[in-house]
Fold:
Amino acid sequence: MLSHLLKKRSNVITARWIVMIIDISLVLQTFFLAYLVRFNFHLNFGSHHFLMQLPLIVALSVVAFYLVGSYKGVIRHTGTRDAYNVFKAAVLLAIFLGIIILINRQFNILMEFTIPRSIIVIHFLLNVIVLIASRYIFKMLYNILVTGLKDVKRVLIYGAGDSGLLTYAAIQKDPHNKTKVFGYIDDDMHKTGKTYDRVLVYSSKHINDAFIEKNKIQEIIVSIQKIASSDLSKIVDKISKLGVKIKIVPPIEDWIGGNLKTSQIKEIKIEDLLSRQPIQLNNKNVQDDLKDKVVLVTGAAGSIGSEIANQISNYQYKKLILLDQAESPLYDLQQSFIQKDSTNFQCIVTDVRNKERLKRIFLNNKIDVIYHAAAYKHVPLMENNPYEAVSVNVLGTKNVMDLAVEYKVQKFIMVSTDKAVNPTNVMGATKRVAEIYAGQSAKKSKTQFITTRFGNVLGSNGSVIPLFKKQIEEGGPLTLTHKEITRYFMTIPEACQLVLEAGSMGKGQEIFVFDMGDSVKIFDLAKKMIRLSGFKYPSEIDVKIIGLRPGEKLYEELLSDKENNISTHNPKIMIAKVESSITEKQLLSALAILQKDLISETEIVKQLKVIVPEYISNNSVYSSLDA
Structure:
């Protein structure tokens, strides 16, 4: 390793001295040319001691180049800064010559070093032109030679602003670059038609199939900072139909050391189009809420639970207990905590249905705050397995809630779902039952029970986006239940920020609802994913409509018809005013029936409908119970 570093260092030093030697030789040639120009291209200037002056030119050039450091620039990466350094070196050389000539004339030391002032001026101008031009010529020759030996990918950069220019510079500086930037795309009328570093700016109106085919464009890189996902989606909609790959430049805060690397320019993902500006939450409130607290996260190995755990790890908790029944994912989470040097955490493999085991955990730890993310969430699976859905989502949750009350836990924050609103399936109904039980528990204890509701999270286990990605990899078709189906989406970090904020601002009995923006039509989402993957819809990959699955809704809701909301200090977070008509006695009676081991699946669903009267089955075998 050391020998490799020394060799690399030696190569750098050698390259710099080669640049110095080339620059000095060019300075000598321009000095000769200056004399030619001065004497009208006649070679009769020997009487002016030209040859005697050459050693002086060499010595002064070495000093000027060394002081400025112009020889240190890498020729193939020549830019404006390198040109400016060469200019400074030429100025310094002219000043040195001028001073020596003045001193020599004042004291009449050596006639041989008396150079006409006009030659100094001509020499300076020639140095600026030749030295700068030589660098760009060498850079161009290098690019021609290197790119001539490999397949070159022709790309367009969408955005001719600062970010676009920096993207171009990053591509040009990459020594392993196999990309030629053909042009920029920009809708700014003041930029279109102009050239930046010899690269023309085109209006997006001119970019069509004929343009792409004629100029053999293979890729378009979107390089616009602080662009809203809705605007990005519109741009991608336009260019995704052109049959080219689309890439995106990351936000400037993600650039390595403040500099963009070509390796950071990634293919655009559907998540980039759906994610919104992150909510700016008051993290001080969360810090105050978790400081010196023992925190339990159930379902800690899942998509939401693991992100909650990771975000909590940034705060000054006393101890963090990560609980899940899934051994392998929990092990992965444990390793990630170890790698980032997190302390005072414990991973426990157990099931929320095992109340005795949970009780031992509560006995051994004075738990202050619980984030309950453990749940079964897949609608069709739970429709076919209502016993398991109730076992985990209702009875497992009840176990944790009852122990929270018994052991005087300060706060219990439950992760719920928009499917609990006017539920049409077993999964949504079980989550609504858990919400109702949390409300009843809050009335008879000092534990603050807080619920958060939100829609689908991007990239979570079993969600539509990973499914579509897999189907595209397999050559399609993409399977969709209904052409008109829509869903709300949010990012996993966004969802978990909401959960933490709810924990800090909740006082008990609240159901927090998140402003999730506009719903997304899944059919449009499928077409976008096909095009973003470089395929044509429908000729190469099609979308197949397979019909709604048992219990599935066309449209999700965040509030039921009987609910309204109250705003909070954060405009993105609201409190749903939810009332349940079921009494505590009726609830406990229904739960007692649900706890029986030999209860039939039909009876399970019937009891869910008793607790949640608004639960009307959709496209399900249990629809007959609603008659």
User: Anything to note?
Assistant: DSSP finds 20 helices and 22 strands in the chain. The domain at 283-469+487-518+560-626 is CATH 3.40.50.720 (Rossmann fold). Residues 486 and 555 are 5 Å apart (CA to CA). The longest strand covers residues 179-185.
